[in-house]
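Re: the 183-residue chain
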Amino acid sequence: MWWNRFGPMFAADIRRQRVSRMKGSRHWRWHLDEVFVKINGERHYLWRAVDHEGEVLESFVTKRRDKAAALEFMKKALKRHGRAETIVTDGMRSYPAAMRELGNLERREMGRWFNNRAENSHLPFRRRERAMQRFRRMKSLQKFASIHASFHNHFNSERHLVDRQTYKTRRSAALAEWQKVVG
């Protein structure tokens, strides 16, 4: 698969640059959410952390959707990306239980439409999942989800927010960086 060859070196480099830029930000907000994914007819859960700009920070696959899984996911995200000012979650009870254990429950925000950023970040993943005709193993789902997020973050330049010339400049810069890493 393409992510076995190009993904790890590219994703690690891009993620490292992004984290170093965002750690200094005062208003870094995370949105946490989970999505159901079927692997061979069995239900699994893909946990995702998205920042306030819509870029996927972390992806994590589990068989269960409980406090232990939420705690493991949050520890992994906090270790890799540092501390966020606020963490937006949905109403699932696993999040406050895990956050209480980590000692950052006071940073939690929850509301009816607060977590739309995370919900919308699932859409590119779902489109690609349908094109791939689902997943066969949990390991391949984990690898694909983490690499897909890095690629999507790098090449998604939000066309609707900028004029054509700026978009073309950013897109060609992203492609040049990609070619430099791969070539």
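The longest helix spans residues 2-22.
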